[in-house]
Amino acid sequence: MHPRFQVPAHLADDLAADPRPVLLVDDLVDTRWTLTVAGRLLRKAGATRVLPFALAQQG
User: Fold this and answer.
1) pLDDT confidence tier of residue 55, bands split at 50, 70 and 90
2) Is 26 inside a domain boundary?
3) pLDDT band at 58 (very low <50, low <70, confident <90, very high)
4) For helices 33-45 and 9-17, what crossing angle results, to 10°?
5) Looking at the domain assignment, is residue 28 inside a domain?
6) Are 57 and 27 in contact, with CB atoms under 8 Å apart?
């Protein structure tokens, strides 16, 4: 899988030890697919909730 679609090991370890919400920030969204994939991976890594936030929307 492309490295930008992987949860870094140190973050996965932190979430496994202490599950908590994660604020997911994207600079520009178009189809929201990146937020969807990243959010799913963060939830699988142990995030209790993923709160997506986009700075701008295209289209």
Assistant:
1) very high
2) no
3) very high
4) 50
5) no
6) no
User: How does the average pLDDT of the chain come out, rounded?
Assistant: 92
Find tokens 């492309």 and name the residue.
Answer: 2
Instruction: Write out the two tokens for 37.
Output: 């994939």
In Å, the largest CA–CA distance within the chain is: 39
Q: How far apart are CA 24 and CA 41, in angstroms?
A: 11
Nearest 5°: phi and psi at 6?
-130, 140
Domain count, the chain: 1
Percent helix, percent strand, percent coil in the chain, to nearest 5: 40, 20, 35
Mean pLDDT over residues 32-54, rounded?
Answer: 95
The answer as to whether 59 is a domain residue is no
- Which residue range forms the structural domain that includes residue 9? 1-18+34-53
Q: Is residue 25 part of a domain?
A: no
